[in-house]
Amino acid sequence: MNLQQFLDRLNARDALREALGREDGITAWKVAPAREAVYGEWPAALDPRLADVLARRGVSRLYSHQAEAVNHVLEGRNVVVVTPTASGKTLCYNLPVVNAVLADPAVRALYLFPTKALSQDQVAELHDLVTALGAEIKTFTYDGDTSPSARQAIRQAGHIVVTNPDMLHSGILPHHTKWVKLFENLRYVVIDEIHQYRGVFGSHVANVLRRLRRICRFYGTDPVFICCSATIANPTELAEKLVGAPVALVDRNGAPSGERHFICYNPPVVNKELGIRRSSLLEGKRWAAELLKNGISTIVFARSRIAVEVLLVYLQEALGKDGAKQVRGYRGGYLPLERRAIEQGLRNGSVRGVVATNALELGIDIGSLEAAVLVGYPGSVSSTWQQAGRAGRRSGVSLSVLVASSNPLDQYLITHPDYFFGRPPEHGWINPDNLPILISHLKCAAFELPFADGEQFGVETTGEILEFLVEEKILHHTGGRYYWTQESFPAEEVSLRSASRENFVVVDLTRRDQPRVIGEVDRFSAPMLIHEQAIYLHGGEQYQIERLDYENRKAYARRVEVDYYTDANLAVNLKVLDVAREERLELGAFRAWGEVQVNALVTMFKKIKLHTHENLGFGQVHLPEEEMHTTSFWLSFPSEVEQGFRADELQGALAGLANVLHHVAPLYLLSDPHDLRVACQVKSPFTQRPTVFLYDSYPGGVGLSQKLFENCADLLRSARELIAGCACGGGCPSCVGPAEEVGAAGKAGALRLLEGV
Amino acid sequence: MLTLRERLQALKDIQALKPESRPTADESPAVPPRCAQRVDIATVVPRQEAGELETPFGPCFHRVVRYPLAYRRGCHALGEALALPPEVGGRLARPRLAGADLAQAAFLDTETTGLAGGTGTFVFLVGLGHFAGEGEAQEFVLHQFFLRDYSAEPAFLWAVGQELAPFPYLVTFNGRRFDWPLLEARFTVARLRSSLPSPAHLDLLYPSWTLWKRRLGTCRLSHLEEAVLGAPREEDVPGWLIPRLYFAYLRSGDAGPLAPVLRHNLLDILSLVSLTAAVGSRLHAPEGRLPAGDLVAVGHFYERQGEAGVAARCYQEASRDGSCCREALWRLGMLAKRHKEYRLAEEAWTRLAEEFGSIEALVELAKLYEHRYGDPARASEVTELAMRVARCRAERFCQRETEALSALTLRRERLARKLAKKA
């Protein structure tokens, strides 16, 4: 049975189900018709050798978006290319770059990829193109794995240097005098996957790029930036904030595509009272097994590594001896060679099915498959389309199935499919001017080159901050310049990927002779996650924290197998420092955002049995209080609402509402749930009223709170729809949280609060 | 809204701002309290030594100190370095030069604002010495260039570049990895890269490493001064304090506390000359005059330079002395094996086996007999012998010998099969 036949049969069955009036199962089925290719003119300025080589590789014409992007770049404009998976975006940058090097061998280009795996794949592809050209164009990867002997050659001779933002930050920019050849001749900077540079990471990367442009100015160059992005709502804005200059948008995709089906599927409820549905993992397996048994090539996306492994085992069992070999796991941690073998297998048909984590959702050439099964909502509209895009050929039918989990966000989307299909993908937010991040990079920049009086680094207040650093004896002002006066190497103290400089590392002592670092936890989360006796989950394994060396920021753990997890009780004391904006809503509620001080103290933790969620016991935690200044959004309700509640009920209602808001907030922000935290106060000392706070979990805030303020109406509507639409009785993990947590009246209370606004 | 200053203050209070928790220069006890008075660097050195060098970028502080050739730093007089033949000087370079006349060498050492490297580390003091004059008037001249202020860096670097220009050779200690790349970075940032000459680099760290690391366990200049030159430092400023003293000077303008730093740098250069003499005298015609320990090290040095003949003679001579005999013989055996001098190797290993009961040497002998001489019977014989030795030792529960024993057992079995086949 081919995919078309499979879909026909599914359609007939679904019609039957609908006739029987059942609610679960397929909640939406959308079909996007096939699209013809749109071609553009071959840019006349490109070297004819490139046309020959591409023609030999079966590319006789450029798609319209490729031609448009190349033309922008050839005319010296920064560009951001936004097109779906497998639309040939790499040519958008490889063509102008290789063309420029062919014309002038002195020209240099820098490629930035968010991960090492991606850069290795790109180098391989570029290498093929260069080899086919027979040109002397040297492409090198410069990252943590590059040997010291190779580094010298790369600095001198590499035409195209492929690296990642972290290496640029700590390995290249602070040593720019060793890279004179690169910076003096830097014509193009390629930044792929810019949608990954959002939130804290993106805000850091924007500052690294400020430093890059500053160093380029010193060496007399002003490179053109070529960015690529997955579909997000604001690619131009994100690219311009990252690059710090105007960027032209190319988003009219000229690549052809076949007919695409997208199905939303909600697993059936098994316990209506508790709101428990059949596991999305098992349902996802069922879909994938059925597709694979019919010989339809399928990729399955799961949300965690452990889910990948479990699904892989299930599928291999389901397919029997012969089929098992045709299904492979594909996740972070696989070596390039293993991945190449899987890719090869997909192309020659010996591999039909792949189970992957969404960490590897894009950019890697695994060819096109017929079907994609998404086990659980990937967290954003943008990622959902990225993953669905893995199924889809330039001709022929393809299918994507989104299998919802019982997570509130999943349930909201699966039960409001029109909302999902109707809305644009999320915005990518960054705030390069976040003060702690800005200062970190201002220090790095001052280390790289002294600041001149009046020089600006992103913000108008640069001078004032530099003066402050002089007072702190970090810089020294003399002769109209600010010079670095510390012995340290500031880039080493700034990690682009983690919230706080003062991260805790988790050291696995399972093998006495081979202690190894398995993870990092930011300072503000440490008391919650890695207090002594905590069960720390990493890579699907359980570890128990044996000792927390708070002074030295180290937690020592050992692998265990237990049937419980730990949940720390966090007492949050949130104080409003300053209100940026406040606005009265209907019926006397207020929305606001501003600056807050959060003090967090963990005093105890609970041991909770897996699956049944029984409470198995308590433990004490003795750790100092953490303090953070950040930005927060808050919603306060008129004091009159109190009258309708008993004291503990109001607490439960607020907590329930906070849970829901926390879960639906990612609908409006391209952020992860842990980028935000919530707190609620029955009578806030600041507003004097019942208040729910959602605050940025990074010191100084990265702008999420402000966006929540702006999207307040949508946020509240989604929250209301989610709670009202949930089939459970008195609260469940898919809406306000289980009744044990928010009280029996939590669900009704949260809804009542929302009705008030 | 909070003001920027209030926010900066808040960040500082929660420690997000300070890069280091160590005390800053002004707070550390070893730095004298800040002096309100500005004291120029020229006033902290003897008047006749201080001077200003005019450059196209402005003046630069320049100090000259002269030493007679007979001036001793530890057990060597400065003139001994001058007396070394160019052939020995050439051996100090990597890759080796046919010759390097130390009369044409600049001896260089820098003081910096840190060890981190990168473009934010500054060089603030350059010491540069060389031999000058003819015959009776020959002397060692030591220049110091000082960076009065960051903004005067172009003048400072230009002056250093000018002073270095005439010298085809450069002598440093660890300059290849530290001082020189740092100077290159400074010259590049100041856009004066073309004013920095490129002399052939004689970095004493590498020969010192070969000669003394095994014996001293470390190869820091201060240890070499003490153990090799017999010139320990007294009342010297500790290295970690130097950047902090300079930062404090930048802010206070009081150069007084920097006097020990200038002295520290002078001593570094003088030690560099003395160490050159120490290294050179060991490398120059080593046979027949060096103690056995030095001979092994010098042999090793020559071996690494690809001069197997000299190396072998050094090892042979050293092996006559009990203290280093074992190491000398082992090195000799391996050297001879690499150069296919099997008789010589056999001789060395036989001596090792006989005098020290060395299992490793017996194993080497077994390999030699089996693979080179095609004599499995004899190979088997020494293997048996090695096993007896190993068994004796293994009884004392030595892990290494137990491992050796199992490897030997395999070897014997293989030899037995080979013999059986032959028979």
What does it look like?
- The complex is a heterodimer of chains A (757) and B (423).
- With 757 residues, chain A is an alpha/beta fold.
- Chain A has 4 domains: 3-26 and 260-422, P-loop containing nucleotide triphosphate hydrolases (Rossmann fold); 39-250, Rossmann fold (3-Layer(aba) Sandwich); 435-493; 571-601 and 623-756, no CATH class.
- Helix content of chain A is 36%, strand content 25%.
- Chain A has a 7-stranded mixed sheet with strand order 1-11-18-17-14-16-15, with helices on both faces.
- In chain A, helix 6 (148-157) links the parallel strand 6 (139-141) and strand 7 (160-163).
- In chain A, helix 11 runs parallel beside helix 12 (305-324) and helix 22 packs antiparallel against helix 24.
- The longest helix of chain A is centred in the N-terminal third of the chain and has 20 residues, at 199-218.
- Chain B is α+β, with helices and mostly antiparallel strands.
- At the A-B interface, helix 17, helix 18, strand 21, strand 27 and strand 30 of A face helix 1, helix 5 and helix 8 of B.
Features:
heterodimer; A: 757 residues; alpha/beta; Rossmann fold; 4 domains; seven-stranded parallel beta sheet; 24 helices; 32 strands; 25% strand; B: 423 residues; alpha+beta; Nucleotidyltransferase, domain 5; Serine Threonine Protein Phosphatase 5, Tetratricopeptide repeat; seven-stranded mixed beta sheet; two-stranded antiparallel ribbon; 16 helices; elongated
Brief digest:
By secondary structure, chain A is an alpha/beta fold.
Strand content of chain B: 5-15%
Report the C-alpha radius of gyration of chain A, rounded.
27 Å
Poorly predicted runs of chain A? none
Helix content of chain B: 40-55%
Largest sheet of chain A: 7 strands, mixed
Q: How confident overall, as mean pLDDT of chain A? A: 85
**Integer count of domains of chain B:** 3
User: What's the CATH class label of the largest domain in chain A?
Assistant: Alpha Beta
Following the backbone from N to C, one meets helices and strands of chain B in this order, namely HEEEEHHEEEHEHEHHHHHHHHHHH
* Oligomer classification: heterodimer
* Total E-strand runs of chain B: 9
Distance between the termini of chain B: 99 Å
What is the share of helical residues of chain A?
25-40%
Strand order of the largest sheet of chain A: 1-11-18-17-14-16-15
